Amino acid sequence: MISMPFQGHITPFVRLALNLASKGIVVTFVHLESIHQKLSKAHNHNHLDLFSDARQSGLGIRYATITDGFPLDYDRDLHPEKYWTSLLQVFPPYVDEFVGNIIRSDPLSQHFLVTDTVYGWPAAVATKYNLLNVAFWTSPALVFSLLYHLDLLKERGHFLCQDHVEEEINYVPGVKSVSTKDLMPYLKESGTGTLVHKIEMKAFEEVKKADFILHNSVYELESQTLSALNKLQPNYAVGPISFSKNFASLTVTTSLWSQSDCSEWLSSKPPGSVLYVSFGSFLQASQQVIQEIAYGLLLSQVNFIWVVREDAASPADPLPSEFRDEIKDKGLIIPWCDQIMVLSSPAVGGFLTHCGWNSVLESIWCGIPMICYPLDYDQLTNRKLVVDDWEIGVNLREGESAVDRKQVAEKIDKFMNGGAVSERHRQEVKKVSAILQNALESDGSSEANFDRFINDLKAKLAANSEETPLSLIV
Q1: Which strands, in side-by-side order, build the sheet including 212-215?
Q2: Where are the membrane-spanning stretches (predicted)?
């Protein structure tokens, strides 16, 4: 398995590897050397092997690293355009060589490839080595479907539509309706020249060549979308993969940064009184927005934990200079944490989030309603699901209005201490949480879909060759 080198992709990929290994498949899990170095540094381990505990438990998982073509000391975060352009052009030959070596070292096994859908090279590598090609999509099926049907969007004038146009899209198979304002920014006119636009366009040309597509979603939440996609290619909703009960107790290092322990601070707060605030691993909001949110938190008087990674922000500390002194014991500012641990605390009553898909799933799983402030990528579309479709969250702002500290304070206060509307969101998120948890029970939809995928995979392999041990390159 070769994941994209982002936290939100690595976490579900690791859990998918454990699930596949639990079915008797030998997995070769591959990290970029730079990601391995970051993990080792974060966890003070010079010879980190992610899956040593898994092997001791009897799972067949091998851990390997591969170069991305850059020196380890190259600052990839400082030069994202150059780095990602290289990943599109220079990285594929390294993958080709790596896969070829794996196959030559074990010529008697049947091999197949599992990669992140966002990569644009898997189909070419799979074709060269006659491998089955499995794509893993780590965002909701709604986002996948919109990208999959770019031809329809283009035909109707909604691909590269003008930024401020608001029209309903109700012709994509399996998608009841979505407004153009909720489209991913790279599908709009202003996003045409962005790197993410180029990456996604290439990826969704190639994913149509995949043999199987796995989704980190739940069938019951996106049934119409997934059913429509399944008529075009074999699609399987197997999420939320990070909560799979297969070898759930195993310790596998996935966090790219060292984690702060918030348990003592949380235990000192009343039940449901803490607002957890995190905008993910890349803080992309402007300093003005961050400062308005900061003062809004102060005005609201709620208890809060705020994850602010200074190495991901510009300037290094985007918070107001006096803010840290003024919060006293009402707030805790940390660089990173175990998000599931925090959301699982009885003290936490809400999550102010950028709507990254992992964060959405984790919040739902823990039964925590959300205040949504999407920033980029798939987050605007994820917000639509959270607020409009499932009604388990609210918007921090409405429309294109600027973020204002007084409105932020009022929104937070009403959300954390409100009446009937606030209670309705809490009841709805409990219902959706139950859907996620039921999907991962032994008779649940995600467990059934994963077994169906394994059976379909083996059948397709058997159709091409005699039955031999399975070996997976992930």
Answers
A1: 61-66, 26-32, 470-473, 110-116, 132-137, 212-215, 235-237
A2: none
Neighbours of 457 (CB within 10 A): 23
Q: Is 271 exposed, middle or buried (0-12, 13-18, 19+ CB in 10 A)?
A: exposed
**394 Cβ contact partners less than 8 Å away, ≥ 6 residues apart:** 369, 370, 371, 372, 387, 411, 415, 425
Tokens of 33: 């050397």
Q: Is the pLDDT of residue 240 over 70?
A: yes
- 3 and 31 in contact (C-beta within 8 Å)? yes
Q: Identity (one letter) of the amino acid at 82?
A: K
Instruction: For residue 432, give every residue at least 6 positions away whose Cβ sits within 8 Å of its Cβ, in sequence order, or none.
Output: 221, 364, 390, 392
In 203-233, which positions are buried (b, 16+ CB within 10 angstroms) versus exposed (e)? bbebbeebbbbbbbbbbbbbeebbebbeeee
pTM: 0.93
> What is the C-alpha to C-alpha distance for residues 351 and 335, in angstroms, rounded to an integer?
17
Task: Write the pLDDT tens digit of every residue in 178-216.
Answer: 999 999 888 887 777 777 888 888 889 999 999 999 999
Q: Is 434 helix (H, G, I), strand (E, B) or coil?
A: helix
**Cα torsion for 417, 421, 422, 425, to the nearest 10°?**
180
**Residue 207, token pair as written in the block:** 């994913």
Per DSSP, 385 falls in state: I
The whole-angstrom separation of Cα 453 and Cα 447 is 10
Cα dihedral value 336, 141, 398, 374, nearest 10: 20
User: Is residue 396 within 8 Å of 410, Cβ to Cβ?
Assistant: no
| Chain segment 253-302, per-residue pLDDT in tens | 888 898 999 999 999 999 999 999 999 876 567 888 899 999 999 999 99
